[in-house]
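Quick one: examine this chain and its backbone structure tokens and tell me how the chain folds. Here goes:
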Amino acid sequence: MAPMALSASAAILPFKRISGGSKLFNSSSKTFGVGPNFSSLKTCRGSGLGIVGLASTGSRNGGFVDLSESETPPRTYAWPDNKKPRVCILGGGFGGLYTALRLESLVWPDHKRPQVLLIDQSERFVFKPMLYELLSKEVDAWEIAPRFSDLLANTAVQFFKDRVKLLHPSDHLGMNGQMASSCGGTVLLESGLLIEYDWLVLALGAESKLDVVPGAAEFALPFSTLEDACKVDQKLNALERCKFGKDSMIRVVVVGCGYTGVELAATVSERLGNRGMVQAINVNTTICPTASSGNREAALKVLSSRKVQLFLGYFVRCIRRVGDFEASVKATESGGVQDVAAEHDSEKYTLELQPAFKGLESQILEADLVLWTVGSKPLLPPLEPCNKPHELPLNARGQAETDETLRVKGHPRIFAVGDSAALRDSNGMLLPATAQVAFQQADFAGWNLWAAINDRPLLPFRFQNLGEMMSLGRNDAAISPSFIEGLTLEGPIGHSARKIAYLLRLPTDEHRLKVGVSWLAKSAIDSVALLQSTLTKVVSGS
């Protein structure tokens, strides 16, 4: 029962499904490996092991990367106290930030309290389950994307805004099960900073996978990060200005009808109202196939009421920009697009849909905006063939294989959480890439780091599915808690319950207080505006 007691304080309310994370590796990088020793680089504390960085001007040799003579040697980060444990956390999403805060909250012996360094490419933590509220103007960016510097101001956790260039673990187990080095390894950042660590947490998250369909990377917008949400909002603003006062409608196509796609379709359709048409595509014959029946039915009801057109049982064959000769010809022959050049105000796109099941016909859709919510890829690139003992064991998706204590197999000094970890449940199924999973894993990772540093037994992670929540608009949501079978809260009640749940999940007490006051003020203003509108109608009617 120990794992249950451990997570009770941090996992009492349900989370919605959402994938993605904090991007640290340069997405153009295709390698993630280790190299030979160089005497010019500082070695790990108490060992003779060195590290070599990836050099843009260097040369490759058998899977290794050599630094050229002109390459500047990395600068070594000076930890405040080399006698205390050094914990480096890569990624500042739910897994990374909440692990750091968990470490900060635990009681430590003075000589064993670790120094914690958190690294992320962004200066802001993003509460991703509430990105939809940015599109509906229900929240402000600072409420769901506070700066790390503000969140960590009253802690001893240090934050660096940077990207990881190379990881060199030196804690690999030898043939006799003993560690090859007394230090955990080193991390080289793109800024040239070299960081030694005793313990490492991989919480790198994932990014949208747009390279599976021709044209998706060029013409579709993902919805996974704060930057993605801002781009979508800016595009919708531009389309709303462009179409203002005109008869033509704003056409938005959402690819994917999982949780993210359905929530996005519901939010955008509510925002556009009668000015737009939202179409959603899914390869399955139903939306949210893994959702509870209550959540699915609530979502279908909302999508139907907002006239969202569902194309179920289809996959996207390609996306083309209207104006391209081949796309125009195909669209004309199919009769799916008429008068392609009628609108010159903004770019338009055509999507060719291929049926996934017999009995369905191919379709061609036209869109002003294509939103992509299908697929994600972890940000741990594949390892190049090199010194085998140093490699991290990765699965086919690029996630690090971990044991039940969240330690990477063969590397007792490295923990992995969230999208970076490949951990299976009791049925042998990989745990889903959700905020709920990452949040619970962060709680256990923090505790197990404490146990490892203090030579205590580590606890096995056991995921507790607390239910799912969906945002369906400004005053609409669906929530199905797992602890009450068959119960689904929807509409305004579900919306309020969801906001309260997420308010309690915000990172720090200070931020929760600020956001809570802000939301109360907005609610009061909305109530006054609604009352004034009602009184005006009553007076005018009399």
Residues 509-541 form the longest helix (33 residues). The chain has 13 helices and 26 strands. The two ends are 65 Å apart (CA to CA).
